[in-house]
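User: Can you write out an input/output pair for a complex, sequences first and structure second?

Assistant: Here is one pair. Inputs:
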Amino acid sequence: DGGITQSPKYLFRKEGQNVTLSCEQNLNHDAMYWYRQDPGQGLRLIYYSQIVNDFQKGDIAEGYSVSREKKESFPLTVTSAQKNPTAFYLCASSSGRRGYTFGSGTRLTVV
Amino acid sequence: DQQVKQNSPSLSVQEGRISILNCDYTNSMFDYFLWYKKYPAEGPTFLISISSIKDKNEDGRFTVFLNKSAKHLSLHIVPSQPGDSAVYFCAASAEGANSKLTFGKGITLSVRP
């Protein structure tokens, strides 16, 4: 079955640590996206990539970094520069304008 | 500047009645609109969409209406069921913006048994 997989489902980060969230898709989609969800804030775009080896900042890119070395993979690194990283992170992919397929999300908590 | 607005954060309806979820947009370049449904701790799932060449699209209990002149769309759920209780996001895309969607903040629907 084609789909998009995020891992891990839960992640705990200590202050000052970088952590990387994984996102893999086997839908052959060109575009991939990272969103952050906070209560009352909806879905805020962090980074997106329309094609391999290219990515663009979204609305809240500060403190995050990404790479797109393969079509199937779009990992997100939450760096120590991100001051409030506790949130629910969603990865999505798409082909054309018919909408996104979302992963099941990663809950990141700072401890 | 929020281009897609869902001004009501929550809605509560009785099981069996109609749920009407509203969405407004400001960008006149938007020409394709979607609704997503999201349960807690899960990713959103696609529900229904509408192109700007139509004013209505129906899929089972779900109907989306588009009023281009008012830059307004609404999702009707009839009849509402307890399993419909979730957060609903309105999203829009514009020609030339590739596939990137702009989302509203979501509305939490509670269907009371």
